[in-house]
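seq as requested:
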Amino acid sequence: GPTSNMAEKILQLLCSAKKLDRDRGLAELDTVLKGNETEAVKVVEEALGGVLRDSSAPWETQHGGLMGSKMVLTHDLCSNEFAELARDRAVQLLTDGEVRVRIAAGQLLGELCRRDGVQVYLHCRETILEGVATNLERGPQADLPTEAQKEKEKLMEKLYGTQGKEVADAQQIFHDTAGWRHLETWMKCLQEVIEGCASQFNPHVTQALLDLLFQALTHTNRFVRETGFNVCGSLVTCSLQQEGEGTILQESDTILLHGQQLAQHFATGLADNWSQVRMAASVATRKFLLSLPSEEVRKTYYPLLLPRLCLNRYYVAEGVRIYSQETWQKVTHTKGKALVEEYISQVVGYYIEATTADNHAVREAACACIAELGSKISSDVVRPHVPTLIQALLDSFQDDSWPVRDAACIACGNFIQCFPEECKPQMDTLYTLFFANLQDNIPSVRQGAAVALANVARAYGASSEEFLIQKVREGLEGIEKQPASTEKYSGLDKGPATYGVVKKLRDNDLDLHTNQTMYSCGSLAPKMGRGRDGGCMDHKFKKPAEPWELTEGCVHLLAELSQIPAASRQVAELLPLAAQAAAKHHYPQHVVLLETICKQLPAIGRGVSKQLFKKRLEDFLDPIFYSVSCDNQLTSSAAAECLLQLSHFLGPNILRGRVEMHNPRYLEQLDKITPAQPFAM
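struct tokens:
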């Protein structure tokens, strides 16, 4: 009849080799089932039963059959015989060679658990747990057919050469990063089943099941760890009576009996080297903390979990960072500060441990967190820990990775301002480090050092200000020593020796890139050890500082010091030196220095006052107009912006008058940037 024709048509779509057709088939099946006719459901069951029984069909057909059957199982009129057939076939297909079929089989079992409850899990528990256990124990290529095995060996050889040690390293890296064949799908199936059974699963959370899961959480392969945390997230919420985050666990729940073990593993996951694993652990941790029955119960887990959540609010991976900030608000409400103060020793302990992590992103986050302790937490609570924290920052200050040096530098500046007395003994060491950063190769590191040194001046007043002004004087005069061209890698006699060119030569330096360990781009693991080489985000590139870099750092420092009222007169006295430095064009990077001077001049002017600044303005007009017409886009746009700001600050007519007096030829350029204002009568 018409119903069977329609079932035929749906089957054809469901079993098509094209995903689009299979999706369309599902949509049509949905429409038919919504008609609620017993006859139609019966016909569809028969048709799908035929597909399920045919084990020789291509994978697309089996996939379509599973997806269709899953939909039928949600219908009230679905028969028990069909449910049983679907269950048996799904269990068999959990070991299929095609990953999409295995995933669909797991989803179907989850749907069955939703329909018939925990007995479905009990019926196939052996199979699922066995599947997880055996796959956890054996290597990823145990079940590769010989062809695939040969292919893999060829690939490994291409990637890693044939030397013994390297092959072993390579095997390990492959082991840690490649997909883990069936293990992931077994874990996903377990997750579907747990979610399907919901609170009925609670009595079946046994130590044996947890041990199996914990084995996955400590597995060397990151995909397995990630899936493991996803399963844990489902496990934690399976006991909740209804959906949504407002639900809580009962005291008697098995999850709470094993809470300490879970928290221990969550803590490890929150500090995993792979951002994806960290993310999955963050999700599971949030579910866990928000489902606990009371603040009292939560407090037992805070010493372990709070410091890690706190650090992840600064983690480099945006997903983890934003998610952790939200978790922090949801868990602590407005009491975050009080909680950090309550658990300060655990927090400090973890931050210090994090400054020695292998992962440079973690070290950078740790420095940012330490800075935050200085500025946000009550100083009496932090004071006892200041010596250890300063020591950790001092170590990070000499890190191989420049983002870590930069973060440590800014944190030290904050700390000195909050704890001037406690930091005094370390100041000699700190000054040396601050000045090293002030002439670093990386522009943002130089800028960070200037900000930090201005905080030192705020903390120690006149004595420090005089010392810094003297250093700025030396730095500005030092431009005299700048050679006309720079040689690091010889053969660079002609042309600008900018950072990029030198780095390119270094990047193509064969000795640095032959017979080195290979790293995966997705992990921050070994790339930036505190004293290791290698990796693709190589932040270690350093060439000796050049005089112009220190001069540029000193211009930033001048701008920062100009914001301190007590120092502004001394800053004004140094302006002629800055103008002299700006007039030197004998070296290729002079455009970088000019860009900085143009960016900082308006700020310096506002700091030292209109009246002192006007006296010095003329010295800067030649460098500014040289910059406006310079070939370098960044420099010329910075110069134009500088003129706009100065015209705003001094008054357009005053600026125009000064320019006209100095050199009337400049007016044409000035009028293009700030059109002349009519005189007010």
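Confidence is low (pLDDT under 50) at residues 241-246, 487-497, 518-528, 531-538.
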